[in-house]
Amino acid sequence: MDRSVARTENTMKFPHRIVPKRSSIGNIRNIRPARRFENLERRIAFRGEAIDLGGGRFSHDSSPKFTDGLAGPAAVFAGFGYPGLAAAPEAGGDELVVDQPSPLILKTAGQTFQLQSSIRFNGAGVIIAAPNVTLDLNGHTIYYGGDDASGVHGVSLYQQWYGTISGGTDARNARIINGNIVHEGTGAQSHGVDEDNGMGVLIENMRVEVNGTDTATIRFTWGNVTVRDSVLISNADDTVDRHAGPANVLTPHARLTASGNVLIGGNSAFNVGNNSRISENVMSHHSHATNGYGVFLYDTSDVIVADNLILPMNGRGVLLNSGHRAQVTDNVILHLESPNAEFGDSLNPPAIRGRYDLFDSVVRGNTGLGIGGGNRTSASGLYLSNDGQGASVYENNSLTTILVGDGDIDHYAQPLTMEKQGYNRTSHDLIRNNTFRSNHYLIRVAGWDGNTEAQDPLVDNSLAWVDGDTARTDFIATAWSKLQDIGLDDNPDAIAVVQQAADLIDALISGVGLQPDRATWFAKASGTKPVSVTLLDTQWGTDVAADSYDFVSLSSGTVSIRVGHTVHARLVDISGTPLANAAVSLTTDRGDVYALQTDNAGLAVLPVVEFGLDKPNAEGSPISKNLRVTSTLTIAGLPAFAAANESLVAGGAGGTIVTLVFGGGGAPNSAPVNSVPAQQTVEENGQLVFSSAAGNAISVADADAGANPVRVT
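^ that's the sequence the OP posted. Answer follows.
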């Protein structure tokens, strides 16, 4: 009886205009557009034994040989022996596809099952129901879900605790390798590879494409999963709950190790759990709902995100939503968004978002380009809203934002946003040695979510203006270089993603100049909470004015934006003994207060403020620029020490350590006494000697120095 149908494989759907090309991944076949019908006996395409599942011809090798060289009985489904060798691909290279009406179950532990041709399932596909099984697709394809049903999967991993498969056991240590999984329907949550607990799963050298609301290419809620050297394509364009973090690869509580992959589509690219490592991947997600990130981390800890290219067509970079000890390093990130149904234009997509109780994390060496304005929303580079519970380090990042067209309350671009930063207590985040560039604003200190309420000084950062052409050239060169560094410069899908991003950037910001209303500081709304931020030792680019600002709304909260320098000081008592591990309070003459701590040698870094942009606590009151002239240091049990800021900065020039002597009971920091003679005259070309013998000596005395020498600078 001849009831089977063979078909050639369908053309895969590549979102975002990516053209199918021959894959560089292993022996995965190029998908061909033709579909032809041939006669073929109904034999499913696994190597080892042939079984007729619909009646008719039956052949069976009593000792089937699998590709790992092991012999053993085949798994069974509904009382039938399990699948066998099908016809080889026909001449001309078109792949034969065998229709299979029901799921196939692999129940023999320790076996390798190798496909010999492709299989089409109308609903669910293959179920692995035994440990240590390898499913080697051998360059072929598993099609599934053509009935448009929801909740069907290409490959499922069985678990005994909820399952009903007779003889099935937990699918631990499964390996799914070397082929394609294609979802042909539109059913929701119909994942390519799926299970609640991925226990030692390896997915390698695969190409997976899926459709449907909240459908992931790979989904494991828990477990330990490795995905490498694969191309993962999601055409999902809707979600029922964006707070759940829908993603192309959805492993929210699993430990995921992912490297060498290309991810295309999905609201986010990765959503992963604790102890995950996401490195050397190329991502091009396309967010259809709010909070679509390349890497979505929700209250996760000990995660490494390193050396990735995150190049969404619409979306954000990395979300650090609480959690501890994350390392986000050396990634190249494009971030831009169109208005969405939830928030319209009121979005501010960042390269890196840190918020709530995030601490003990490191964000280092990342390069970002954000594009706002035009038919897109706003953009921020580094976007912080941490509650101050702990400290993280943000250093050596290069973040650039470009505004296209005119700015307004919903269209702006800045490489640093601190909104609701330090809202419970002072944030001790270290923000240092970064480069922030923009054609619009440089630092945003307030917005609808809140203000920069309490943040340790930002030290040694560079602020500069940049136009669209320079930003475009710099970023695209960095992206191509990163692609080469991670070894995916010969992968056609990765190349297509980078080229598509380069074309998009070129189209959006080529020829875009500096905004005429650009300013260093920006607040969308200051609210009733205070704004307090300090910049020290900043490298100011050409024409960047430290006192320029644009505040859209001045409410009743106070504003204090301060600019100054660091001075390294040794604090000692009158005997010269270092004041080790001492709590120090530094107060400026305008009432700014900084809490410091000396180290074991009595050393401390002093924030010496040059000026501030200040607003009192009154509705609509203006901002004024006010100099800071003196700083007073206090240590419990000792007299206060006051010094002129100009003297402190001069004394600490070039990193020189200034010694500050806290005297016992006398007036703090007695002013030096300069002795100069009366007006002197000398003939032209003559010499005038100042000396005690001549009665015209010049001398400087400082009571605070005691027996120590006095240095005059």
